[in-house]
Amino acid sequence: xxxxxxxxxxxxxxxxxxxxxxxxxxxxxxxxxxxxxxxxxxxxxxxxxxxxxxxxxxxxxxxxxxxxxxxxxxxxxxxxxxxxxxxxxxxxxxxxxxxxxxxxxxxxxxxxxxxxxxxxxxxxxxxxxxxxxxxxxxxxxxxxxxxxxxxxxxxxxxxxxxxxxxxxxxxxxxxxxxxxxxxxxxxxxxxxxxxxxxxxxxxxx
Length: 205
Fold this sequence. Notes:
Layout: E1 5-9, H1 13-35, E2 56-58, H2 63-71, H3 73-80, E3 84-95, E4 100-105, E5 111-120, E6 130-134, E7 137-141, E8 147-151, E9 158-160, E10 167-177, E11 202-204
């Protein structure tokens, strides 16, 4: 993979809308299930989105998103220049004030593909920037609904500053180099996919 980050169109508006509806419906269930476990001083606006706080709600992956994960392999191999094995995928709903600390992804997320599925903002032109670092130089990119990026998540530091919109839905698909040191992590956590999405382990910088 020559570029540090590659941006491209991945999903149609119709597909993004369908995934958005699934995530928003499941979000109501997650909020209800979490309410009984919260302490009295926990904000009632859960789920919110800030890593390490009440920052994001978990989303159970659908057959549709799992299928997208598998069918994206050939295209992403063209961008990365190597054969890829899918590992895990996750979905998150971020709300106003969300931040993503500067971090590296876990080994099973050697290659990270992020997709913007839905955005709600009082400013229609607002897009939540993704920041990443290349040779200690900070860079950023923004994405419309349906646009995606591929990045070496376990090697390239990346983060997001506080989110200024109302909510944003993100889908993440992860891969490893089939001929690399992490190839044994193929289908990592696959057995848990249809039960719940595990909270990704990240290394803060």
